[in-house]
């Protein structure tokens, strides 16, 4: 990297392992052992890595903001999906319960109508003498 010193930022940053410092226009090896270059080597506002148009400080801030936005959006999506799923489940349970209630009401109305029909038929049978004795349901039918 030191071979690119006193040339240009673009030539220095073609190699990924190099860091350009604008204070003294030098190209130095990127300190791989530490994540951020120490201020004794070059201040963050004057250091360039990757591209020449943005300083290292702004690059770190931009990457932190983008990462934060991604994490917040993932968290919001997860919470929203869990809330919607729980809400739709409760809505489906309510609809199912309502359908069961309606089904039971229809069944009770059907039984009531069936009972009323049986009473009416028994009344007609009684009127015409077709009603059998309840104590002897197996009596013989006689022709007169």
TrEMBL record:
Name of the protein in its database record: PTTG protein
Zinc among keywords: no
Transmembrane segments: 58-83
CC per GO annotation: cytoplasm; nucleus
PANTHER family: PROTEIN CBG20567, PSI DOMAIN-CONTAINING PROTEIN
Coiled coil: 85-121
Keywords annotated in UniProt: Coiled coil, Membrane, Transmembrane, Transmembrane helix
BP term (GO), one: protein import into nucleus
Database matches in InterPro entries: PTTG1IP (IPR052304)
